[in-house]
Amino acid sequence: MLHTLEFIILNFLLNFKADCTTHSSPCLETQYWKKYEVRCSENETIYIRQHNIGESCQEEVLGYDEKKVNSCSYSLPLSKTITDYQTPFTKTVNKCNGKRECVLFTDYFEKIESENGALCRNPNTSIFQRIEYECIPDVYVVDNCVREVDVDNQSELHDIYLRFSVMNRNHSCLLIGELSGIEILHTYSSVLRLLYQNHPVYEHLESSIGLYGVQISIQTIGLVLEMQGFDYSSIT
Questions:
Q1: What is the pLDDT of residues 166-197, one digit of tens each?
Q2: Which end of the chain is more exposed for a tag (fewer CB within 10 A), N or C?
Q3: Is the separation of the CB atoms in 183 and 214 below 8 Å?
Q4: Do 117 and 167 fall within a single domain?
């Protein structure tokens, strides 16, 4: 059975293909955004997939389920790497990811438009926003792997998530089983190496730079993950 893997560091979650529920907020013009609760069920945790921004969206029968942008649109994060931990989006995902519920207030949406609206701004248009997030079942999450994880035995049908939340520690984890892909969901102040037969297949060595939604095409039987976390409170 082939698996994909996903992981977050600190909120480092690495996914081997888990079955999670995807949610979308309404798509609203910035001035109409009030308090919004990002919420998952019991025994699930949040992963904010992206924040969509555009010049318009079309209301459907059940609300703004389908965002249709006539011209300009884009999604946050703009890059798969995070160099500024103080933007509204990065501060929010660091606050919300890994929690069961999280509240976004009006000023969050106002700051998103203030900092990013110029990318899509025409003089006579408004900016619309929507949040997309996933609810990851706790049953598919392996916390702070330090020895080995048998991917095939962990789940025959679902992806597996590796989550590392203990900082200032080196982790080395042997992943056993057939892997068909990896997605690095979220790293924060961490160094990461993936090795196959002692040869690196992926390395992220800049602890001051975070990763978000990085997909790695790989097909192996077994993989070694080495990770070192740092005290992220020193990052400004």
A1: 655 677 888 777 777 788 888 887 888 999 88
A2: C
A3: yes
A4: no
